Amino acid sequence: MFPSSEIYGGVEALYDYGPLGSLLKNNIKAAWLKRFVQEREEVSLIDASVIMNPKVWEASGHVQNFTDPLIECKSCHARFRADYMVSGRFKGQGEAKDVNQCPSCGDRDFTEAKDFNLMFKTYLGAVQEEKNATFLRPETAQSMFTDFKLVQETQRHKVPFGIAQVGKAFRNEITTGNYLFRVKEMEQMEIEYFVKPGEDEKWFDYWVKEWQEFFLDMGLDKKNMRLYEHPKESLAHYSKRTVDIEYKFPFGWGELAGVANRTDFDLKAHEKASGESLTYTDPESKEKYHPFVIEPTMGVDRLFLALLLEAYEEVQGARTKTTKAAKEVETILKLKAFLTPIQVAVFPLVKNKEEIVKKAREVFDLLKKRFSAQYDETGAIGRRYRRGDEIGTFFAVTIDFESLEDGAVTLRDRDTMSQDRVKIEELVETIERKLHDKDD
Ligand code: GAP
Question: Please, which contacts does 267-271 make with residues 24 or more away whose CB atoms are closer than 8 Å?
Fold first, then answer.
């Protein structure tokens, strides 16, 4: 990860995913899409525009309700979330020795709290006037409501069915921090699952379980996850019930994902505002109704952070037993095989022997078509193994002098550090089998 626009000093709460981060993030999204779209007949994917008709945000309630209480320090004009100030979130930070003290200057005098809308405003067209104003979407959900009828009819879906989306959402958060946990530009993976009213509570429980199982299969530890039931008074304006799946981050338990029962709030609101019917007619009973919506949602960036924390391991004294290495701390990123940015690295034992380099390049060309692969010829072989371990590289393939004689290479496993000789013609199949075993 890099700070966004790093050469200009960065921008608060905006990050760029670098070469390895992008691969990991893509693998997270691919695993989610496979599980919740590819393997499900009743869920369809859309990829909607980030900027929508401004009427969407009036109807959805976001213009009115998507706010946080904002206070300003009267001395230094720093701004904070009022609820965080009262709960003592800033105590111990900067100049704040106590609750209700400004972390920037230590003063205790704040303006009255006023509602601050978190949506980023922008303008459609060349004239910046109010009638052209709209917002960057603060959640991917709304397009799945506005497209509800189009998806249902074109895909001939019967209730229950879902619309899924992976995409960016934007929030002008007042208090950011904790790295990727609270950013201003994030990515969400959401499903709006349309069900028959009366069956909503059953489907709610179903999706909480599905979400939990997904996180376990991604490699999160059960003991680092817990459920949080939102009390009625803190529910979002659209929700009848919300349960968060929290993760134990180093800075405390925090929301990783959520499941909300949005009832028929959104479909009815958009129907009223647009004048378009958003009802569903049961093909058998001919009953006409507004489906209830169960919304399982998760943030890609928060899951990315949780997976990194879970996978990161430091081994004191190192795993390798050579005298020099024994003094070091070894770092291993134990990401699952389907998530790890680089699945296999190819190393020529030496870089100044033409035949070895040629053979290593042949092996790399073979492997890169099937796996996420990297070619690395810099440094001693032990260093290259450790560099690979640090970024989670699952297997390392080393081509040595013997390879030129017997057509076999050394296949080294990240986790066990075992080293097996494998014939080049059996290499793809062997790696495929081992990766598959690792994922089970
Ligand atoms: N459509 C429902 C919705 O947007 P939310 O709880 O506000 O619900 C869904 O957001 C998920 O998006 C959260 O569970 C969290 O993982 C992620 N998320 C929300 N705000 C975020 C932020 N500022 N930075 C990073 N991730 C965020």
Answer: 267/145, 267/148, 267/291, 267/293, 269/59, 269/60, 269/61, 270/56, 270/59, 270/60, 270/145, 270/146
Q: In a 3-state reduction of DSSP, which class is residue 83? A: helix
| Residue carrying the six token digits 């529910």 | 235
C-alpha dihedral, 41 to 255 to 174 to 77, nearest 10°: 180
Task: Dig out the tokens for 192 from the structure.
Answer: 């709006």
Please, what sign has the CA dihedral across residues 85, 88, 93, 96?
positive
Closest CA relative to residue 188, chosen from 246, 249, 139, 245: 139
Q: What is the CA radius of gyration of the chain?
A: 26
Note the pLDDT of residue 317: 79
pLDDT digits (tens, 9 = 90+) for 2-26: 999 999 999 999 999 999 999 999 9
The binding-site residues of ligand 1, defined as CB within 6 angstroms of any ligand atom, are 139, 141, 171, 173, 182-183, 186, 188, 190, 255-258, 295, 297-299, 301-302
Give the model confidence (pLDDT) of 21-67 as tens digits.
Answer: 999 999 999 999 999 999 999 999 999 999 999 999 999 999 999 99
pLDDT band of residue 322 (cuts 50, 70, 90) is: low
pLDDT recorded at residue 326: 58
Report the distance separating Cα 3 and Cα 64, nearest Å: 32
- pLDDT score recorded for residue 262: 97
- Higher-scoring residue by pLDDT: 232, 440: 232
Q: Give me ligand 1 centre to Cα 411, in Å.
A: 41
Best probe residue, ligand 1, of 143, 144, 166, 188 (max atoms within 8 Å of C-beta): 188
Determine the pLDDT at residue 319.
80
If you measure from the C-alpha of residue 299 to the centroid of ligand 1, how many angstroms do you get, rounded to a whole number?
Answer: 6
Give the distance (Å) from ligand 1 centre to CA of residue 138. 9
What distance in angstroms lies between residue 188's CA and the mean position of ligand 1's atoms? 7
Indicate the pTM of the whole model. 0.94
The kind and range of the H/E element at 27 are helix 19-33
Which of 137, 234, 255, 263 has the most ligand 1 atoms within 8 A of CB, as the residue to mutate?
Answer: 255
